[in-house]
Amino acid sequence: MRKLQAQGVHHITLTGADRQTSIDFWEGVLGMPFVFDQPNLDDPDEGHLYFDPGDGRLITIFTNENRKPVHSRTPMDPGCVHHIAFNVSKATWMQAVERLDARGIRHSGPKDRGFMDSIYFKDPLGLLIELACYKFEPPLGCSHADVMIEAHRQRVAAGDDHIMEVHLADAIELLVRRRQQTLSGDRDPKDPY
């Protein structure tokens, strides 16, 4: 038996309402360029809109002019999507409250998640959206996941409940130590003062 090895998210497709609601939200609120448009090849009564969330991957929306936006929360039954999180810069995250408030969009307010900062709000169809901003940059040649797994190990070893900045900093130091060579014979911390 062999795995079917995934190598990243190709795209996420959501069931939308009418075409303009999708364009107004995904491009007009979240700034995702509208990059492709065709019929839903499995249902000719629907449109299929494609948006670039910023990393070249795709968020796609099935639209139907007979479906209207509903503002209640999407189902949270087993198997349903709880929320979708999008990466934003620290500068954008710092403006999120002001910009959501200016549009009258209700939100959670800032949330400190230890390794990232978040804010949550619903799209026009009730899907919970998270804007997330990492509190760290991974060392050159490493991914955010590399830092996260090492920070998790640091957290568990320390007996802490959740990842905090100290675990991230220690994980980054360890990853740099592993990846980057040095001419020094001793890489332990020193006090030159």
Describe this structure in words.
The chain has 193 residues and is α/β, with parallel strands linked by helices. The chain folds into two domains: 11-134, 2,3-Dihydroxybiphenyl 1,2-Dioxygenase, domain 1, CATH 3.10.180.10; 144-179. It contains four helices and eight strands; from the N terminus they run E-H-E-E-E-E-H-E-E-E-H-H. The strands form two sheets. The chain has a four-stranded mixed β-sheet with strand order 1-4-3-2, covered by helices on one side. A four-stranded mixed β-sheet has the order 5-8-7-6, with helices on one face. Strand 2 (34-40) and strand 3 form a beta hairpin. Helix 3 crosses helix 4 (165-179). The longest helix has 15 residues, at 144-158.
CATH class of the largest domain: Alpha Beta
**C-alpha Rg, in Å?**
21 Å
Order of helices and strands: EHEEEEHEEEHH
* Global outline: elongated
Mean pLDDT: 95
Major sheet summary line = 4 strands, mixed
Q: What does the oligomeric state look like here?
A: single chain
CATH topology grouping of the largest domain:
2,3-Dihydroxybiphenyl 1,2-Dioxygenase, domain 1
Task: Please give the count of helices.
Answer: 4
How much helix is in the residues? 25-40%
Uncertain regions spanning at least 5 consecutive residues: none
Strand content: 15-25%
Number of domains: 2
Number of strands: 8
Spatial order of the strands forming the largest sheet:
1-4-3-2
Task: Give the name of the CATH superfamily of the largest domain.
Answer: 2,3-Dihydroxybiphenyl 1,2-Dioxygenase, domain 1
| Estimated structural class | alpha/beta
CATH architecture descriptor of the largest domain = Roll
Organism: Tranquillimonas rosea
InterPro entries: Extradiol_RC_dioxygenase, Glyas_Bleomycin-R_OHBP_Dase, Glyas_Fos-R_dOase_dom, VOC_core
Domain VOC: 8-134
Protein name: Catechol 2,3-dioxygenase
